[in-house]
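dumping this here before i forget
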Amino acid sequence: MKKNIVLGGIVLLVVVSIVFSLLALNQQKKMAYFDYAEVHEECNLKRDLEKDLEKIVSTRKSQLDSLNFELTLLSNKVQSDNANQEELDRFEDLKSRFLKLQNNYEQENYRLKEEYFNQIRKSINDKAKSFGEANGYDYLFSAVGDGALMYASEAEDVTEEVLDYVNK
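structure:
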């Protein structure tokens, strides 16, 4: 009889332990991470904006090259002492215009590059949040190599899924 009571107590204890374990398991948070650098490098928006920037920079470079060519021709004439005052004035005006335009283009190219970077970052952040919500994650980490995520099982890596989602 004592053996049955002890055995019944052990079985009851095992059943209660299993029930509590299952309850605790159900309450675990769903977590995953993705490689932010990979998503950033491979996202379509970045590629599109880079192509746009390349076109703009190329057009500006062509304009500067054209002005530079004209400057070179005038410079040769000025250096050969065959230039009249009108040509000297034109050379100085053209040189000033070239330097001002070059400076403006450099600043605008930098500003545009920063604007595109911020646009890409915002898009990835917004879509990562949407991805996490749509897929029922409690936490979605971004592995950016800054120590924020020191280890994660590869089974939790959803980089490819996030990249597909960002590129929709």
